[in-house]
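Something for you to look into today, if you have time. Could you write out one complete protein record for me, on any chain you like? The space below this message is yours for that.
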Amino acid sequence: MATPTSLPIAFKVLTVNVHKGFTTFNRRFMLHELREAVRGVAADLVFLQEVQGSHQRHAQRVANFPQVPHYEFLADTIWSQYAYGRNAVYDNGDHGNALLSKFPITHYENHDISIRGPERRGMLHCVLQPPGHHLPVHAVCVHLGLQESHRQQQLQRVCDLINSFPADEPVVLAGDFNDWRHRAHAVLQREAGLEEVFVHAFGRAVRTFPASMPLLALDRIYVRNAAVHAPLELPRKPWDQLSDHAPLAAEILL
C-alpha cells in the first residue's frame, strides 16, 4: 500500500529481440532503422534480447556498424541509464540482454541460467528508482532456451529470483521466453504471482515470431504489484522488417 508521499507512476515498456541488429536470416543490417523505431515508441524502459556487445568481424565488414556496444548505440541520448548482461561469448565478440531506462538504475546483476551445452541464456535483473515513488521497481530481462526441459528449469530460476524480492515491490519481467507451448503462464502465475499483460487483456499471448508473419507467441511482458497494466498496439511496419521478432509494448501504472 502506497504511503501518502508516494506519487502514482505511469510508464511505458517495450521488449524486442533485436537479432543482433540483423533481419531474418541475417540478410540486412538494420540497427540504425531499429533505433529510430525504438525511439518512436517513446518507452521509459526498453528490454532487449540478443543485443550485440561487440563483434570484431562485423565491425570490419558491415557498413555503418557502430563502434560502440549496440545497447549504447540504441540508448544514445534518450535513455541515460542502461545495463548489459553478457550471455554468449565467442571468438569475434559477445551478445546478451540489456535494459535501457529513463529511471535511475541503482543496482544490476546478470544471472547465468544456461543449463548445459552450447546454448547460453541469462536473466538481467535491474533495480530502478522512479523519482517520487517510495518503492523501487525490479526489471528482469530474460531470454530462455529452445528446449522445453531447459525452459522449465529456467522458469523455476526466474521464480526463485522474483520471490527473493520484497513482496510489495513492483516487478516487470519481459523478454523472449521461447514458450511456443504456452506453459510459462501457469508456472509464473502460480509460483511467483506474475500476470502477463496481453493474456490478461485478450485471454491469450500475442504472436511475435517470425515478425514478417507471426505464428508463435514467444515474447511476453509479465507484471506483479502493478495497479493497472494495458497492452499498447504497435504498427506492423516498419517492425516486420527490422528483426526476426516483432516487439511488444505496454503501459503500466503503479
About this structure: The longest strand covers residues 45-55. Helices lie at 31-41, 56-61, 70-75, 148-163, 184-192, 197-202. The chain has six helices and twelve strands. Residues 211 and 245 are 5 Å apart (CA to CA).
